[in-house]
Amino acid sequence: MQQHRGIVLKRYLPKKQKISILDDRLGRIEASIRDKRLLETFWPGMELMYVPTMGIGVYTLEQPFLVAAPFSSAQQDIHFLHHILELSYYFLELHDVTDQIFLLVQFVCLHNDSLSYEQKSMIIGKFLWQLRHDIEMLQGQEMLQRLLALPLESMLKETVDPRAHAYIVSWMRRAILGHPQRAYFKTISFILETGVT
Questions:
Q1: CATH topology for the 4-70 domain
Q2: Which residue of 11, 28, 132, 191 pairs with 92 in a disulfide if CB–CB is 3.0 to 4.6 A?
Q3: Are 28 and 22 in contact (CB under 8 A)?
Q4: Does pLDDT of 193 surpass 70?
Q5: What does the radius of gyration of the chain's CA atoms come to, in whole angstroms?
């Protein structure tokens, strides 16, 4: 059986003995681990490797081990990391498979301390773009569409016009305010109040 990579999005402990994972091939899944003590050591943002086996609505992660933990590189910017994890949890349906979203979340987990305010906005814009979320708002915004279509690291090297950046922030806020489960968001209110930092 092949090993998968996954990023922990959410813990349900201690209420439920499971976690939500963004799997590189299965999309967002709910998962448990037989060793409950090991399960308790896995936190949002950690990247794991494992062999998933399907149960009744929940995968069991066999032979799980930690690949990377963001906390050593994210001490200064833990809020933005949690924004991205929360967006992934609420905007992705179970089993939505998008390798580009996985790569975006993985990038943020590893590099978020070095990102500027504008780059964070663009990352959230790219997240929404990849999900094709409310993209009719981008009609007539050819420069933004061109930027968002670039590979992530190329996009982040581009200089963003202040008006284009303001447009992205407006789009992002509209997407969050319009989400049917926004009452459950814990960190996104930070974006709504202050932008993305």
A1: OB fold (Dihydrolipoamide Acetyltransferase, E2P) (2.40.50)
A2: 28
A3: yes
A4: no
A5: 17
